[in-house]
Amino acid sequence: MSAVSLPAASDLITGKTRGGTELMFDGLMARLPAALKDAFQIIPSRVRDLDPVRPRLLWLHDLPNDPESAKLADAEYRKAFRKIIFVSHWQMERYHEVLNVPYSEAAVLKNAIEPIPAHKKPDGPIRLIYHTTPHRGLRLLVPVFQKLCELHDDIELDVYSSFKVYGWDHYDAEFEPVFQACRDHPKIRYHGAVPNDQVRAALQQAHIFAYPSIWPETSCIAAIEALSAGCLVVCPGFAALPETTANFALMYPYTEDVNAHMNAFANVLNNAITYYKANRQALQPRLQFQKQYCDAFYSWDVRLDEWVSLMQGLLARQ
Question: What whole-number distance in Å separates Cα of residue 266 and Cα of residue 143?
Fold first, then answer.
């Protein structure tokens, strides 16, 4: 498998893209009290303009090896921000290890979603879903699914994946062969990029989120949505995925070797499909508990209270 070419950091400017960072920023701005929105400048990942008056909060969603993060190794530069906010403890630890960002300058406020509405899963074939950008693992998933179709005649896969979600249509060219493989397979439906509300609806029809991640997630909104939708999550124990999925995922050890990764993923996914088919009803209490946990822990109601508490505390210490 060839290396994936990714956009330059300068392409990742909030307002021009519609990825997870933008969903989180829009969600927070829609809920924060006006007084707190006016009191702070909240900067989601990309520092472009610094408000000369208001205290600034840098809300990071990226990895410490991102070129734009390099400045955070400079203690003087970090003084521009009242607090550096991370979306997982794993991410915060990485910034501490790589760039020596002190814990005293940091806070962790995890991502949030609107819970997926309660629903009943469809009978019939086991429906798998992949609903994130292609470089995160689609090239591993498709051949594994093709192989598992030889063992199971009652599985289907829906793929919602394209860089068009970020407005980077040209980056899809590298993944056109795997997109075409999806289009050509009779049990794969390739949907490309669609609005988030359509993905949320699709999750209600899905049984398993199949995610052989090769990308070090700082968090994973796709996994959070899948947990809330009552889907089994199959993924590696890589980066922030163990923290994000909170022991609910069916997890296997991550390996850099692509063939070994595909074999490990195929084994766990095959077991998940087999178990789901044999235990549809018995699984429901576990999946309901998973959903209850996710909806409570990752809801905007909970996260908003944490943001408000942090911001009010910072104002009180001015």
Answer: 10
